[in-house]
């Protein structure tokens, strides 16, 4: 047996304790036998002191052993206050959401001296405290939670009143310092720290995990771009008074959402005070018949399948019968149009004739490739499922080729167009900031040559005075785009409305340069814009100008410099063409 074992082993400790107890026991006996009560008292005190000392030593050894050798960290038992959810920031580190220290107020009526004074003081200093809640607490007969979310300043103000029976406890509160800005993308969390909407819900686990390391979660949006998008969208709503509106800005090469706006909006600090309509994310969670923005998808399909080229012609001299529908043009040209002119004049007749040549099976297959028949792939839980034709036949082509009979979200349109503009790859949209230099790939939708041609066709629609998107032009930025005006279905009348429509504009910039050059997509949508005393509120009237204003404001933030303008597919007789034909 080793020296350590024989000297300091369990048997040695047991023997020492037994000997000590024996000495104390006989010390009591000797004190009683000698008749000296003071000795007996001293010994008893010494004995109690020894027991307490021994207990303290045992607890200290146990605590030291737990700290030094336990695999459980202190943070597992007591996470730091205010760190349940990490900060949300934009791609440049600007604050979007944070946990801040607040307080909950409690009342114990058993300790209150003057109920009337307590009632008066709390009512005067806490305007959000309802009389009903206060009265319930005053009559509860026990300590009761009254109101939460008190800032340190308010807590100090009430505390200084010196009210007996009123106490406070610290609590976490999620705060959104920018209020309404980016509300639908940022979302909100409940009082228990669980994300319920937007990024707060979509990235809930990431936000919680980042909190443990005192980190933050950067989102893809740029607050400068977000502010410009919201400002121009709200200006359009103030002018045309729609029931709703949405706007999106996307980096076509990464799928990063740089800005997302929805109208009406709400304050995520008080989500319960907002209506369900205000909290609806119209960019992700509402579906629309997008109208002629879909012509970009049909034209891309025609080019990619070889059914058409930019110079292919289509007879738009008279209405076209396809399936059960007679198709007409809003601004009839009564002419034979090239594919480029079909796009520029937004000819329903020409697009339907192209769709007929493509055929229902191929058009359906390409719409699948474009991601239009599934919810837009993004982290947002609000991403809604589209409404698509049950049977893809001639009737379906007569509608879907120019954006009727199929309902999709603005994010689905943004994703599909971004794929057409990045060289032909369908990428997921993301609300996460990707590391600089990240290369994202997705399934191929169209050939690169098709993407290049479509970019030029979209540019011609904005650069040419005959194009429906001319009002989105920004000198030196080579903007391209496609207008959309979709009549809304009236369930009561069982027909399309002649007064209610969805007006939109899908824009891309810059359109020049190689496919790998920096490029961005912008979508503006207004749901049921009002005509007022002006012209019919089509996509070219209400959405295209707003998109142009957004592009002009955000280009410097994206490092897009002004350059020589391009004007592809310019018709020789452009000055004799009718003014910007607009679809309906």
Classify the fold: give the CATH topology of the largest domain: Beta-lactamase
| Helix count from the secondary structure assignment | 21
> Any low-confidence stretches, pLDDT <50, length ≥5?
1-8, 70-83, 572-583
Beta content comes to: 15-25%
Broad CATH class of the largest domain: Alpha Beta
Largest sheet: 5 strands, mixed
For this structure, what is the CATH homologous superfamily of the largest domain? DD-peptidase/beta-lactamase superfamily
Total count of strands: 18
**Average pLDDT taken over every residue:** 87
The helix content, as a percent range, equals 25-40%
Radius of gyration: 36 Å
Q: What's the CATH architecture name of the largest domain?
A: 3-Layer(aba) Sandwich
The helix/strand class is: alpha+beta
What is the overall silhouette? elongated
Q: What would you call the quaternary organization?
A: single chain
Could you characterize the architecture of this molecule?
- Helices cover 39% and strands 18% of the residues.
- The protein has 584 residues and is α+β, with helices and mostly antiparallel strands.
- The chain has three domains: 21-48; 87-179 and 210-217, Alpha-Beta Complex (Penicillin-binding protein 2a (Domain 2)), CATH 3.90.1310.10; 227-267 and 275-576, 3-Layer(aba) Sandwich (Beta-lactamase), CATH 3.40.710.10.
- Strands 1, 2, 3, 4 and 7 form a five-stranded mixed β-sheet that branches.
- A hairpin with a 5-residue loop joins strand 1 and strand 2.
- Helix 2 (10-34) packs antiparallel against helix 3 (37-69), helix 11 packs antiparallel against helix 21 (544-558) and helix 13 crosses helix 19 (448-463).
- Mean pLDDT is 87; it is low at 1-8, 70-83 and 572-583.
């Amino acid at each position: 047996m080793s020296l350590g074992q024989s000297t300091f082993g369990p048997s040695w400790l047991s023997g020492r304790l037994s000997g000590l107890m024996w000495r104390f026991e006989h010390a009591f006996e000797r004190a009683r036998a000698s008749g000296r009560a003071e000795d007996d008292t001293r010994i008893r005190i010494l004995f109690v002191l020894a027991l307490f000392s021994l207990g303290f030593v045992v607890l200290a050894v146990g605590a030291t052993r737990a700290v030094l050798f336990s695999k459980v960290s202190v943070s597992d038992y007591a996470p730091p206050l205010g760190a349940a959810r990490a900060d949300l920031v934009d791609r440049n580190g600007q604050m979007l959401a944070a946990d801040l220290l607040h307080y909950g107020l409690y009342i114990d009526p058993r300790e209150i001296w003057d109920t009337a004074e307590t009632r008066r003081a709390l009512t005067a200093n806490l305007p959000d405290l309802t009389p009903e809640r206060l009265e319930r607490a005053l009559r509860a007969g026990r300590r009761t939670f009254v109101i939460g979310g008190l800032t340190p300043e308010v807590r100090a103000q009430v505390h200084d009143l010196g009210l007996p029976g009123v106490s406070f406890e610290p609590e976490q509160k999620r705060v959104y310092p920018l209020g309404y800005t980016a509300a639908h993308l940022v979302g909100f969390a409940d009082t228990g720290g669980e994300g319920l909407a937007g990024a707060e819900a979509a990235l809930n686990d990431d936000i919680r995990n980042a909190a443990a390391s005192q980190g933050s979660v950067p989102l893809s949006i740029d607050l400068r771009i977000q502010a410009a998008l919201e400002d121009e969208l709200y200006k359009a709503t103030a002018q045309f008074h729609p029931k709703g509106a949405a706007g999106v800005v996307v980096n076509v090469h990464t799928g990063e959402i740089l800005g997302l706006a929805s109208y009406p909006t709400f304050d995520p600090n008080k989500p319960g005070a907002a209506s369900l309509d205000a909290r609806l994310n119209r960019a992700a969670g509402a579906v629309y018949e997008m109208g002629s923005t879909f012509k970009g998808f049909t034209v891309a399909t025609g080019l990619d399948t070889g059914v058409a080229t930019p110079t292919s012609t289509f007879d738009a001299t008279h209405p076209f019968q396809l399936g059960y529908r007679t198709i007409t043009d809003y601004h009839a040209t009564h002419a034979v149009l090239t594919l480029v002119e079909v796009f520029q004049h937004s000819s329903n007749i020409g697009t339907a004739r192209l769709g007929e040549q493509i055929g229902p099976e191929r058009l359906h297959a390409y719409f699948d490739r474009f991601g239009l028949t599934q919810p837009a792939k993004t982290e947002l839980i609000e991403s809604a499922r589209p409404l698509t034709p049950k049977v893809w036949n001639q009737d379906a082509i007569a509608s879907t080729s120019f954006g009727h009979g199929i309902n999709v979200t603005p994010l689905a349109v943004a994703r599909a167009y971004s794929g057409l503009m990045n060289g032909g790859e369908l990428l997921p949209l993301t609300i996460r900031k990707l590391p600089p230099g990240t290369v994202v790939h997705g399934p191929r939708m169209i050939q690169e040559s098709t993407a290049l041609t479509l970019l030029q066709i979209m540019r011609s629609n904005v650069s040419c005075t005959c194009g429906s998107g001319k009002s989105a032009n920004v000198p030196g930025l080579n903007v391209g785009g496609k207008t959309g005006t979709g009549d809304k279905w009236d369930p009561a009348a069982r027909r399309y409305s002649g007064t209610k429509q969805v007006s939109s504009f899908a824009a891309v910039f810059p359109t020049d340069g190689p496919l790998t050059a920096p490029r961005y997509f912008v979508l503006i949508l207004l749901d049921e814009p009002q005509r007022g005393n002006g012209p019919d509120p089509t996509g070219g009237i209400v959405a295209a100008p707003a998109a142009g204003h957004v592009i002009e404001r955000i280009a410097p933030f994206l490092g897009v410099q002004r350059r020589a303008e391009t004007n592809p597919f310019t018709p020789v007789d452009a000055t004799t063409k009718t003014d910007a034909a607009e679809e309906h």
